[in-house]
Hints:
Shape: extended
Distance between the termini: 123 Å
Strand order of the largest sheet: 1-7-6-2
Number of helices: 4
Order of helices and strands: EHHHEEEEHEEEEE
Strand content: 15-25%
Radius of gyration: 46 Å
Number of strands: 10
Largest sheet: 4 strands, antiparallel
Oligomer: single chain
Amino acid sequence: MVVQAYRFALDPTPAQDRDLHRHAGAGRFAFNWALAAVRANLDQRAAERTYGLDGEQLTPALGWSLPALRRAWNTAKPQVVPWWGQCSKEAFNTGLDGLARALGNWSASRSGRRAGARVGFPRFRSRRRVTPSVRFTTGTIRVEDTRHHVTLPRLGRIRTHESTRKLARRLHAGTARIMSATVRHTGGRWHVSFTVQITRTVCTPAYSQQTVGVDVGIANLAVLSTGQIVPNPAIWPPLPGGCAPQPGPCPDGKDQTGAPAGSRPGAGSRPKPAWPAHTPGSRTCAPTACTNSPRPWPAPTARSWSRTSTSPG
Length: 313
């Protein structure tokens, strides 16, 4: 079981648009009325303490939970809102539930039971600053078979801008159940969001044994999910022969290029080819003798000159 939301844009008629605004305003009115009652109760009890009263002598405290606020609202609504019958009870319950959550967060933050930034005391909601919204948890909440209409309590059947087939298919198959519907006015348009409990089948991969996880690390190059450890490659692999190159001339009196140490091309001889630069590991020398045979020193070649004299005939 997973909980998923489906959101659709509504296309209400002018009369339905007024009803939606009326329901959102009813929730805001219930929030402000309950907040005023809570603040008046707190101020009254604080004033009575300054008179020396305490314990049972104080005015009974007004509960902050949703059931307590709902009982107080049901007692006062015939005198406070004579028009309450024009709206669904879920509209007023939306405002009371929002206040109960806000007071709970403020109390938990004040006592240190809530982590994060400090939460202030709830403030009254203004029509200009609050986004109109109403939440339905009971009543007729249905997605019609036409897949272009939804039904909400006291609002009736409302057309949608888009198809609801994604949710309708699951409802028809019996793999989804609508838990609540929230209508909200954003971006100049009404939207409805259905909170749905969905039953999904967990699929098993067909080739589960051919998948392996790889964790690249520092101590080891990689560790596989099968338990195999791939070690890091050596930075300097050992050279053949078991000895490392040593700088300087070899014990046989020749340098790293194989030429006699200190030898230079003689004057008047042909310039010798440039010896290649020494590459580490190209010549391996042992303490007593070189393991690599030196390159033969090229013999100097004499340049012969022949002068032919000519005389006038």
